[in-house]
Write a structure and sequence with these properties.
Number of strands of chain A: 19
Largest sheet of chain B: 7 strands, mixed
Structural class of chain B: alpha/beta
Structural class of chain A: alpha/beta
Shape of chain B: globular
Bound molecules: iron/sulfur cluster
Radius of gyration of chain A: 21 Å
Strand order of the largest sheet of chain A: 12-11-19-18-13-14-17
Oligomer: heterodimer
Strand content of chain A: 15-25%
Number of strands of chain B: 7
């Protein structure tokens, strides 16, 4: 019997010839990632369990990005970053990206890719549910809690159940008005927020392999929104080129066997899909943009690990060029290198940053910012009565701040079109 | 591991996500300082919309006033309980508030793992949908040996799915205790 790409990576990490979906195995972890919200409690558990003088299992394999509550006056939040800083110096960690220094990166999932930690065929765990983002690189990546992370810190091992796989094939050529965000919103509407619980979501098809790595990351990023354990896309030339650019030279690639067993298969023709939103208060509350067109907005938000990559800003800038926004619109680059690219990339000689400034957007520093609400002084945080359209990944009650705000999730094209009109707008109006 | 858990039920709907269980703005408190830890209990389930708080009628806050312990220690949820972020603060907050067991139709993976590996609470699955059969405030008893819940308010009882693979970790009290018993770590 053949194996899926996820099963093959599990077998490798479990040092086995083969594994079968449903069995529990112990995996050797290649990289553990943590951040300022879950790092401190992870460190506390690790110290309690292994003793104050212990050394972590492999300091080269631990990566820490402060990114969630970074630019705030909240003393408790700042204390969390102090704890990370102290831990990094105690353990002489080479991969700590401190805020306030040249090394500061921003949102962890994007920084992992940019810094070359995403390596095909490997196993990456992170104390963040969107760790599944890294699966775009043909690797197994998933989120865990602090206890599991502390266990990895001490032992380099973790138990996991081998997931069944679901396959999502996208055929056809991507129309100009469609982005990866629309594809994942389509899937979420079809299978629901628990449609992939404990399963791997494997994406393939002509349309998927035509996407850039950053767009692929939008798909794998939101696998968790369907409850998926991981999202995964096999390596192709696009992956190889990205890896070469970030200096990753050695890796092993895997592909699913033709006779691999899947829990289910879904096939879509992208030429028949249209721009979508997830209405309040769930990422699977799908509707077409056309159906909610005209909904009055109070805020627009372009940012996060889902929708704050340079590709997202390219989409947004292409519509905002020469236009003005009618409602407050936040532009939050996911990482400091995305922020830099906003200054360097141009459309007709105007930098993306200038396009956003001229359109009247508020440009914030790279971090998670209002994607998860955050402390009360967080930029872009939703307040009572807000109606927001956002390129982020979650619109649960209170996720972006006030639990009485309404959040719509959409593609960067849809958010930019909506910003120009002040009401939810189909991007085809501007294309 | 307690063999019998007796208390009052607090009933919730489907898709109770971790932002509703413990809103992100509160994730800044220390989890190792006993005084700060109480904040997690105090804010547990504080983002559940009030009309859905304590079904079937709603409008029943989980934590009264300035307390950090709840009057309720058994949660009955629907499907996909604990979806959303990986924050272990979610089962922790419920534990600090006094919750011993959650019974839901299904769980999101990370919440389920965190509950088990951190030894915070017992996440039982029930093949039957219980959140329209049990009411908030009902006096219930969970039998961890027989995998049963008995509702003393109306005398009905329901079978729960056995914990299966994770039973040993639950019984040990968490992943570290389990690994010590198994000789994996010292
Ligand atoms: S940007 Fe949002 S979803 Fe991404 S890691 Fe930060 S808080 Fe999580």
């Amino acid at each position: 019997m053949g194996m899926t790409i996820t099963e093959k990576i599990f077998a490798k990490a479990a040092k086995r010839k083969s594994v079968t979906a449903g069995e529990n195995v112990w995996l050797e972890v290649d990289v553990l990632m943590t951040h300022d919200v879950c790092g401190p409690p992870t460190i506390a558990i690790w110290k309690k369990e292994f003793g104050g003088k212990a050394k972590i299992w492999d300091k080269d394999k631990l990566v820490i990005f402060p990114d969630h509550y970074i630019f705030t006056k909240n003393a408790h939040a700042n204390r969390n970053v102090d704890i990370l800083r102290q831990f990094a110096s105690e353990q002489s960690l080479p991969n700590y990206y401190d805020v306030g220094t040249e090394r500061y990166k921003g949102v962890c999932h994007i920084a992992l890719a940019e810094e070359g930690y995403n390596v095909p065929g490997t196993v990456l765990f992170g104390t963040d549910s969107h760790t599944c983002t890294s699966g775009a690189f043909g690797m197994f990546a998933t989120g865990v809690g602090n206890t599991d992370a502390a266990f990895i810190l001490g032992t380099g091992k973790i138990w996991e159940k081998v997931p069944e796989s679901m396959k999502f094939t996208f055929k056809g050529k991507m129309p100009a008005y469609l982005t990866a965000k629309d594809l994942i919103l389509r899937i979420l509407g079809d299978i629901g927020t628990d449609g992939a619980t404990y399963r791997a979501m494997e994406f393939d098809g002509e349309a998927i392999f035509s996407l850039s790595m950053l767009e692929r990351m939008t798909l794998t990023n939101m696998a968790i929104e369907a409850g998926g354990m991981n999202g995964i896309i096999a390596v192709d030339d696009v992956t190889k080129k990205y890896l070469e650019e970030v200096g990753v030279a050695e890796y092993e690639t895997f592909e699913s066997d033709a006779d691999a067993v899947y829990h289910s298969r879904y096939t879509y023709d992208v030429s028949k899909l249209e721009p979508l939103v997830a209405k309040p208060h769930s990422p699977d509350n799908r509707d077409t943009v056309r159906n909610v067109q005209g909904t009055k907005l109070t805020k627009c938000y372009i940012g996060s690990c889902t929708g704050g990559k340079i590709t997202d800003f390219r989409y947004a800038a292409s519509l905002l060029f020469g236009n003005k926004v009618k409602v407050t619109t936040f532009v939050v680059p996911a990482s400091t290198s995305v922020a830099k690219q906003l200054e360097e990339e141009t459309i007709n000689g105007v930098s993306l940053k200038e396009i956003f400034e001229k359109a009247g957007c508020v440009i914030a520093e790279s971090s998670c910012a209002a994607c998860l609400g955050g402390p009360s002084d967080t930029i872009g945080r939703s307040v009572d009565g807000d109606v927001v359209i956002s390129t982020t990944n979650r619109n649960f009650p209170g996720r972006m701040g006030s639990k009485s705000s309404q959040v719509y999730l959409a593609s960067p094209l849809t958010v930019a079109a909506s910003a120009i009109n002040g009401v939810i707008t189909d991007p085809r109006e501007f294309l | 591991m307690e063999k019998k858990i007796i208390g009052k039920a607090y009933v919730l709907g489907d898709n109770i996500d971790t932002d509703q269980i413990i809103p992100a703005e509160h994730l800044v408190y220390s989890t190792s300082d006993p005084e700060e830890l109480k904040k997690y209990g105090h804010f547990a389930l504080s983002s559940v919309p009030i009309e859905k708080a304590g079904l079937p009628d709603g409008g029943k806050v989980f934590i009264e006033g300035e307390n950090y312990k709840s009057d309720y220690n058994i949660i009955i949820g629907g499907s996909n309980f604990g979806c959303g972020s990986s924050r272990e603060h979610a089962p922790l907050a419920l534990q600090v508030a006094g919750v011993k067991v959650v019974i839901a139709e299904s769980y999101a993976r990370i919440f389920y793992r965190n509950s088990v590996d951190g030894g915070f609470l017992i996440p039982y699955e029930c093949p039957e949908k219980l959140n329209d059969k049990i009411k908030t405030g009902d006096k219930v008893e969970v039998d961890v040996v027989g995998n049963k819940i008995i509702n003393h308010t109306d005398g009905k009882s329901y079978q729960l799915n056995p914990l299966g693979d994770v039973f040993e970790i639950v019984e040990a009290g968490g992943l570290f205790e389990f690994a010590r018993t198994a000789g994996m770590i010292s």
